[in-house]
Design goal:
Number of strands: 8
Shape: globular
Radius of gyration: 19 Å
Structural class: mainly beta
Oligomer: single chain
Distance between the termini: 55 Å
Largest sheet: 6 strands, antiparallel, barrel
Strand order of the largest sheet: 1-2-5-8-7-6
């Protein structure tokens, strides 16, 4: 007896809630990966291509942004976080999120233990 098995549990969630999910994840983000291309003169140029489009909730992090110094590395703490419904193992640090005509570096990717949501820590691209 479980969800999707014509059980009483199927009626626990109101059908209209699925239609309302867009209000909880109103921000559309393009996840982009860099490709390095060599021009005829030998110059290396980085170009970005969209590999995934997701809907999420863009928010300020609970802690202030800055740097977290650790023994082996210095990690930038997030200026913004993007919460996404679902598990996205293809999103990696080093990619960027393009949101509302702004580019954001992805500095950390965190998924919950059930694979139901993903959080991206973001820092604004300044160049």
């Amino acid at each position: 007896m479980g969800l999707g098995a014509e059980s009483v549990l199927d009626g626990v969630v109101h059908p209209g809630l699925h239609a309302a999910l867009g209000r909880f994840y109103p921000t559309v983000a393009e996840i982009q990966s860099a490709t390095v291309v060599r021009r005829p003169n030998g110059e290396l140029v980085e170009t970005w291509a969209t590999v995934l489009v997701v809907s999420g909730n863009l928010a300020k992090p609970q802690q202030a942004s800055g740097e977290a110094r650790q023994e082996s590395q210095t990690r930038v703490t997030a200026e913004r976080v993007l919460n996404i419904a679902g598990w996205y193992p293809q999103i990696e640090v080093g990619q960027r999120a393009y949101i509302e005509n702004e580019a954001w570096n992805i500095t950390a990717v965190t998924s919950d233990s059930l694979g139901g949501s993903t959080q991206l820590d973001l820092e604004r691209v300044e160049h």
